[in-house]
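Case study B.
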Amino acid sequence: MPELPEVETVRRGLQDLIVGKVIESVDFDNPKSFPNDASTVDSFMLGSEIIAVRRRAKVLMIDLSTKYSLMIHLKMTGQMVYEGASRFGAGHPSDSLIGKLPDRSTRVSIGIAGGDKLFFNDQRKFGWMRLLPTLEIPEVAFMKKVGPEPLEDSFTPDIFLERVKKRLRSSIKAAILDQSVLAGVGNIYADEALWGAKIYPGRVVASLSDEEIKLLYDEIRYVMNKSIDEGGSSNSTYVNAKGERGSYMDFARVFRRQGQPCKRCGSIIEKTRVAARGTHFCPICQLP
DNA sequence: CACTTGACCTGTCCGC
DNA sequence: TGCGGACAGGTCAAGT
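Model:
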């Protein structure tokens, strides 16, 4: 469930921790998690310097000095965790992963010159990491079709309105989960933003006014910025690049709050299914 | 073409 | 206590 705020939090952490470091070794044995062959890894990863860490939608990109990049999608349970030399010391929170890796979910271990390690963990093996020429990233099918970045200045309310209306006959929740409409929204922030805009997630897009859609635009940006400030949502396995959990779930208004009172009107939050996803909403604030 | 559903995985939780 | 089944949800492929 890493969505845009979680992936961005990991990106910022990795940026601080790995840029300028040199890759010394790579251990991997699961072709689904890391499909590259050993000779490509030897030629374009070993001895390379890490130049930059970028993000587009929910995809991370680690650029190497060989003009190759690691393209990474964490999907639901993926983690990128860096262990510096301090892992040999004490003082980490008890729920931190530091010092406990690799474990059985570790799919790739990257050795850094000087003894540090970067781990790609993924319990469910839905996520993947691929090594490819940096210039080929834009040609990957997902990158070609993915919609605009919601937090960039160039993403205006009118652009959101126009793009959401491409999905006129689907539910508004399905429309904002569609990565070709806009990038980065997943189940958590879809529910949170729809609560903020007082829109029932199952409403058909065609039934929404322009004002409602523009309110939703504001709420999507609000919850994503708020979550980045909180270091993301750790309702299950998500951790940042230091193996630490995020705190957005302490702030969540509806997500995983079924049975608890609405923070706006006091009604009991309900859970249903919309767009084949568990969906949380307030039955009074968000009328069908 | 627009839209929905199932598959991919593994760990956890619930009911019997 | 063990065990089967439902559930978790990002994206793609297959189906309506």
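Residues 32, 75-77, 105, 122-126, 166-170, 174, 236-237, 275-276 of chain A lie near DNA strand B (CB under 10 Å from a C1'). The remaining cases will be described in the next quarterly update.
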